[in-house]
């Protein structure tokens, strides 16, 4: 059970760290290289990159919202070995600018590996299941973040 609790904490660190703009916390949850798959929402292809690059991109973008809240729950750890694991979790992600909201719900699938410091995400796939509000807030947030730099 200790591994499952540590994995759940790693997944929580990504969401809670991003909402708090605690980028070292987010970065610590990832292996040095990570593959992210947001094709269910945006199309395109999964992206493999250095975790530093991924987190820097989020750090440059997410502050363009007035606030975000990524609620990740119902963690389920599967295929746990001594060095690897898979996990799933449900999510609701709320993004706010002024009184406008874009809320997305769905599921994340994760692949993890363990090193001497703990469990780290090597891949994550987001599967959107529903959304409400104004998806155009994403573009507004990007513009706001770019203008602030």
What does this 3D model show about the protein?
This protein is of the alpha+beta class. The chain has one domain (2-148): Nuclear Transport Factor 2, Chain: A. It contains five helices and six strands, in the order ααβαβαββββα. A hairpin with a 2-residue loop joins β4 (84-97) and β5 (100-115). The longest helix is centred in the N-terminal third of the chain and has 18 residues, at 2-19. The radius of gyration is 15 Å and the shape is globular. The model has no long low-confidence stretch (mean pLDDT 96). It holds the Pfam family SnoaL_4. It comes from Thalassovita mediterranea. This is SnoaL-like domain-containing protein. Residues 2-125 form the SnoaL-like domain.
| Helix content percent band | 25-40%
Task: Characterize the quaternary organization of these chains.
Answer: single chain
CA-CA gap between termini? 44 Å
Number of strands: 6
Overall structural class, as computed from helix and strand content, comes to: alpha+beta
- Trace the largest sheet across and list its strands: 2-1-6-5-4-3
Beta-strand residue percentage: over 45%
Q: Kindly identify the CATH topology.
A: Nuclear Transport Factor 2, Chain: A
Separate helix tally: 5
Total of domains: 1
Mean pLDDT: 96
Q: Element order, helices and strands? A: HHEHEHEEEEH
Q: How large, in whole angstroms, is the Cα Rg?
A: 15 Å
In the CATH hierarchy, what is the class?
Alpha Beta
CATH architecture verdict = Roll
* Outline type: globular
Main beta sheet? 6 strands, mixed
Low-confidence stretches: none
């Amino acid at each position: 059970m200790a591994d499952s609790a540590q994995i759940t904490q790693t997944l929580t660190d990504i969401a809670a760290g991003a909402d708090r703009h605690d980028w070292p916390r987010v970065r610590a949850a990832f292996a040095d290289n990570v593959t992210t798959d947001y094709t269910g929402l945006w199309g395109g292809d999964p992206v493999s990159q250095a975790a530093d690059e991924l987190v820097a991109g989020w750090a440059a973008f997410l502050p363009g919202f007035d606030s975000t809240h990524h609620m990740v729950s119902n963690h389920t750890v599967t295929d746990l070995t001594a060095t690897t694991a898979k996990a799933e979790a449900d999510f609701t992600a709320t993004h706010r600018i002024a009184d406008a909201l874009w809320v997305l719900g769905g599921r994340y699938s994760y692949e993890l590996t363990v090193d001497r410091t703990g469990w780290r995400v090597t891949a994550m796939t987001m599967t959107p299941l529903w959304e409400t509000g104004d998806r155009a807030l994403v573009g507004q947030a990007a513009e706001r973040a770019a203008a602030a730099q």
